What we know:
This protein has helices at 13-26, 30-37, 44-52, 67-108, 111-125. It is mostly helical. The protein folds into two domains: 13-52; 67-125. Helix 1 (13-26) packs across helix 3 (44-52) and helix 4 (67-108) runs antiparallel to helix 5. The N and C termini lie far apart (86 Å). InterPro entries: Homeodomain-like_sf, WH-like_DNA-bd_sf. This is Transposase.
Amino acid sequence: MTMGRKETVRYSDCFKLSIVEEIEKNGLSIENCRRKYGIGGSTTIQKWLKKYGKNHLLNKIVRVETIDEIGELQALKKELKALKEAFAETTLENKVYKTYFQILGQETGMGDEIKKKLEQELLKYFPKQKR
Length: 131
């Protein structure tokens, strides 16, 4: 019983360049080119494009950052973290105050009166917003 051996096919540089040129100039897809010329490996042509081509067909993300941009990004991340913490603290305080005034209103029986007075006071500071 003989096992099938995998053949190594070597392509000339001229052939590789012609394939890369056909893909870049004629817009032929890598898969179509692979089928058309019977090229076996799924990444063979991608390697040729990387080596011989203009690299515009490869999926790459190129980031160019200056030292200033990196510093600014770090400062913005730090500021965002501080703002999130401040927001969480303010939200918690808001819940505490709401609960406090709700209990105060229930205990004194003046819930509606307290609520109206609070709204009037808040409107002095925030005239366009109703609370």
